[in-house]
Amino acid sequence: MSQASPQMRDFARRLTAHESKGNKSSQSEARVAFQVCEKLRPHIATLMGNAGFQGLLARALALASREAPALRALHVKADGSLAGLDELEAQARPADLAEEGVVLLTQLLGLLAAFIGESLTLRMVLQAYPKLPFNDLDMIRG
Predict the structure, then answer these.
(1) From residue 129, how far is each of 14, 77, 83, 122, 134 by CA, in Å?
(2) For residue 1, is pLDDT > 50?
């Protein structure tokens, strides 16, 4: 389960691209994938509870850290948010941080799809991103 499908990675990239288009904040482009994780948090927590989301994100982080070792600098707080992102951003090149975020998001989506199925995962993504183009939703299917 640690190796996410190329389709899931593509789907994570499309989600980050969609988030980036609507990103009006001063947050760095390198953080976009982490913002997607944060935007999905309340939707996943509604289904699994805060502890469930925290556990899911912690597992995704552990899996993603195998591919992107710099992510080991992060940890998941009790509320499900990520700690250490500012420090990681200060040390990493923006392109590397952006890719590491995609790795984490890919693992989060992959675990979620494994636990609740693709259909419910897509429904949650649509709740968080109601304007996501429908053709992007096919990217999760392998």
Answers:
(1) 12, 24, 24, 10, 11
(2) no
Residue with the bigger pLDDT between 22 and 73: it is 73
pTM, entire model:
0.90
Q: What is the C-alpha separation between 58 and 49, in angstroms, rounded?
A: 14
Spatial contact of 123 and 131, defined as CB atoms under 8 Å apart: no
Give 30's pLDDT tier (boundaries 50, 70, 90): confident
Instruction: Tell me the average pLDDT across 87-113.
Output: 95
Parse the chain into domains and list their residue ranges: 6-20+27-132
User: What is the full DSSP assignment across 60-107?
Assistant: HHHHHHHH-GGGGG-EE-TTS-EESHHHHHHHS-HHHHHHHHHHHHHH
Q: Which residues contact 52 (CB under 8 A, 6 or more apart)?
A: 44, 45
Residue where the block lists tokens 């990217």: 139
Determine the Cα angle at 59 with ends 54 and 63, to 5°. Answer: 145
**Structure tokens given for 129:** 């991103």
